Prior knowledge:
By secondary structure, the protein is an alpha+beta fold. It is built from 9 helices and 14 strands. Helix 8 packs antiparallel against helix 9. It starts with 7 loop residues before the first strand and ends in a 7-residue tail after the last helix.
Amino acid sequence: MNLNTVTEVKRPAAAEEITQWREGYAWLAGGTWLFSTPQLGTDTLIDLESLHWPALAASAGGLDIAATCTIAELDRFVAPAAWTAAPLFRLCCQSLLMSFKIWNAATVGGNICMSLPAGAMISVMTALEAVYTLWPREAQPRDVAAMDFVTGNHQNVLRPGELLRNIHLPASALAKRFAFRRSSLTHLGRSAVLMIGTQGAESGDLLLTITAATVRPMQIRFDRLPTAADLRHAIEAQISDADYFDDVHGSAAYKRHLTYYYAEQIRAELAPGALA
């Protein structure tokens, strides 16, 4: 879509060049949402591509992902063998409703910052205990846990002009076992529910992450694998009926049912002896 209100495109060599922020400015990464709908309040685009951030950097401490990393780049990432949870990248990349053109342009950071319930990059980053580095315009960088970033449907903690710079995934989370469940009302359609369970190789714990079914990510942590009854009680205690997201991709009641159904499947899959 042509944005006929845009009169200027800035291409800074460093984010620090944008010292002031005003109404009408918008960061441009992949632009797959920005160019999909009229932006009547936007007159200036600030192109992040000119910053040339390295897309992916693996180290002993984990994986750093630039906000400008594309979905296609993350999907192609070859992880160290010890990172047993790395297949979640491809599973979640392929849980997004997009054409091949969008696949090669859409960014990880853009999906996170859109903060939609079905944002699959939100799902995987939350499940793998990511920490986001945010760059305000006139303050020091700050770190926010992925779990705390999204606050509601299309809502997050970003301040005006603040930029998501980096996503850090700790090696300890990448080395966990995982179980993945997803449902959509249509083939390759938008997720009605996307749930991930992770478990330390030796600890026998369970971290259950619930997304798409709820207006924001929900997470329940157990020090050891719960019983089926304890798991159900924990979900009931933490997620109210009002937290389930009701839209054309599934009613709240439908998503609530799938949440309990998949939670028990995940618990059973990660139970001792399940892989025997």
